[in-house]
Amino acid sequence: MAIFGSKWFIFIFIVVLFFVILLMIGQKSVSTQVQIKTSPKNVWAALSNTDNVKQWNKILVPIKGELKEGNVINYDFYQEENGKPSNMNATVKEIVDHKMINQKGGIPLILTFNHKYIIESTSSSTIVKIHEEYKGVMVPFWDPSPVEKAYSRLLHQLKSFIENE
Q1: In this predicted model, what pLDDT tens digit does every residue of 17-67 receive, in sequence order?
Q2: If pLDDT is split at 50, 70 and 90, which confidence band does 11 have?
């Protein structure tokens, strides 16, 4: 019984409780979209070819890896225009041809991301969305709005590339 009344037990209990609370509240997301006057097939061709992506994408630039389920792709992420890149890895979790690319990465429990490109067809165009969810104990202390702005720039680069081909 003495262990439950000890100062160390109380301290460890409070630290663990704080960590669990941070994990529970540590969730945020960003979303952006663009409408492109083309077919989902053309959008898919631009997004899914990691070699050609470098022609138009100056935000999330693939350095190494192939877009295939289970593969790890190494990226340089340029969050700020004309800024220095952050190098990161993402594991390709799911690919649905002409509809969705899902990649995940980060540091488990600290800050993880679940990144999705979502492609939706309309009667005369294609809507391309980026939705990214973040989880982890550092999320409550982090502002993802610059990432959302970078993803918006990325989608507008995609739109410009496709519509001006």
Answers
A1: 777 776 676 799 999 999 999 999 999 999 998 778 989 999 999 999 999
A2: confident
DSSP line for 73-103: EEEEE--STT---EEEEEEEEEEETTTEEEE
The structure tokens listed for 47 are 């997004």
Q: Which residues lie below 8 Å from residue 68, measured CB to CB, with a gap of 6+?
A: 92, 95
Q: How many residues does the chain have?
A: 165
Distance, CA of 139 to CA of 40 (rounded, Å): 33
What's the whole-model pTM score? 0.86
**How many whole angstroms separate alpha carbon 138 and alpha carbon 91?**
21
Cα distance between residue 100 and residue 116, in whole Å: 7
